[in-house]
Design brief:
Mean pLDDT of chain A: 85
Distance between the termini of chain B: 9 Å
Mean pLDDT of chain B: 85
Strand content of chain A: under 5%
Number of strands of chain A: 2
Number of helices of chain B: 13
Structural class of chain B: mainly alpha
Oligomer: heterodimer
Order of helices and strands of chain B: HHHHHEHHHHEHHHH
Number of helices of chain A: 11
Order of helices and strands of chain A: HHHHEEHHHHHHH
Largest interface: A-B, 48 and 41 residues
Low-confidence stretches of chain B: none
Strand content of chain B: under 5%
Shape of chain B: globular
Structural class of chain A: mainly alpha
Largest sheet of chain A: 2 strands, antiparallel
Low-confidence stretches of chain A: none
Radius of gyration of chain A: 20 Å
Amino acid sequence: MTLFLEQLLNGVQFGIMLFLLAAGLTLIFGIMGVINLAHGSIYMIGAYAGTWVAARTGSFWLGIPAALAAAAFAGLAIEFLVVRRLYGRDHLDQVLATFGLILIFNQAVTMIFGRQPLFVAIPSLLDGSVELLPGLVYPVYRLAIIAVGLLVAVGLYLLINRTRIGMLVRAGSTNREMVRALGVDIRLLYTLVFGLGALLAGLAGFMAGPILAVQVGMGEQILITTFVVVVIGGVGSIRGAFFASLILGVVDTGLRAYLPGLLRHVMVGPDADALGAGISSMGIYLLMAIVLLIRPKGLFIRNS
Amino acid sequence: MENSLKQPALLAVVLIALIALPIVADAAGYASLTSLATRVLIYGIAAASLNLVLGYGGMVSFGHAAFFGIGGYVVGILYQHYSLDEPLLGFISGSNQLLVTLPAAIIVSGIMAAAIGALSLRTGGVQFIMITLAFAQMLFFLFVSLKTYGGDDGLIIRRTNELAGLNMRDKQVFYYVCLTIAVLFFMVLWRIVNSRFGNVLVGLRQSEKRMAAIGLPAYRYKLMAFVISGMGCGLAGALMANFLRFTSPDMMHWTKSGELMIMVILGGVGTLFGPLVGAAVFTVLESVLASWTENWQLALGFILLFVVLYTQGGVQAAFARLFGKHA
């Protein structure tokens, strides 16, 4: 039972990371109609910048502003130099241009930091574990990630539903042309949304640092999973992204934790582990296929 | 698109050049050119297949490497069962005959394309891109986990498939086999593109509503195009597995899908021979840049960015503009 709860928390934590990326991605799709493959690169840039600064200064906390600043800067530069020219272009052009960006960023990071993964230690304040329930010991750092993610979710909810900018964002995702026709500076709004998405991606990248290895290619791995989140949650819906992230995080972690064990009942150890790992990697895509069969537009988009 | 076809003279010249290429390459002492040209032909087939959905049908599939990889694995798996002499699933015997493995690769990738397409085409736009990408990743992970067929390391095919007593180990012979298949493939593709089906496909890209209003079942036409395109990529993958005598999950990695798209856009979207030109440009560019610097991906990224942002219609269109012709 405690093992199950622990895996559940792991799933929630993974889901929260996915949400930080998916929120930005889904807004960029929903409002600008741009597919941005380089979102994973921004996540990587945040991770590298933050981890590098943290390792150099020896202070985990100094890594946070570094990661956020680097991610925001990279995001705004991408928006200003490349993505701005892609509004209203074909999706094909957007995919290829941002694919080019991935190649550039991956190679540039390899040239600067080398191929060795970077590591950062968990700060002493968040190191260690707490006993949540009798017998259920859980690392504080992972709990902190969950807390930060939930705070961001609440913040986004308030921003989207309670402020003027949020109102424009909602309007923009429903009818872009009308917002422009009403005299709103849509270009500024685009830049803001893109910057916000980049900030969240950078935050996610830095927080992932102590848990995962910071290495080239980390962005694409999570990016494709994030796509699945966006599709399941429905393009443009933050609420959808939130719930879909949590569902996917829990399903993915659960499959990884329990499937090899189940398979070992019917086949030999190493084979079961390999096949279990493979099928658990496929699990979220199968889930997506099922969701698409039932609701092609995603779970949280009302069919009009 | 018909522009280049209205110039049969140009086509004949290109074909003669392609036939003469291995002989000239050998005489000039650049024997490796033949291998490069073989890769161009194979990627040309794959890119042209992708272009059928991408350029003509306007469906941006980001997962076509899946079919490329499936084609390769059909050859690899059939060869493994042939060499171990144990039937696949207990009743399908393995094979090392090209005339068996190629059709098998085409059929299997067609079936997979039907399954993936049927699901993916329920959506459109951005979702379609992401879903095709996700399905390709799913197959990638499946093959990574299949330890029986090499898993991560891939599957070595000790001998190239046999074809009617030809010495397939010979690079030149294999080049001519690929050339023959490519010529046949482009003839079929030309028929498809210029048929009623091809016109409907272009119509669907321009306006799905209009086509639906005429009473055409959009979904069925798009699915058909997706299946044909998947079969073409499967054929290319089967040839590639024979050429490399190796197949691995990397063949269906998402970057491979990206590369195929780059070839299409380099050559010119929605043209019959553009993807072949694009495949040539990409393959040559890759080998030149890679021999020049280990950071060739950086250069490739910038070139790609430049092509997408500043040229409309790829290399072919750029040339046409350069020589004052209407693209």
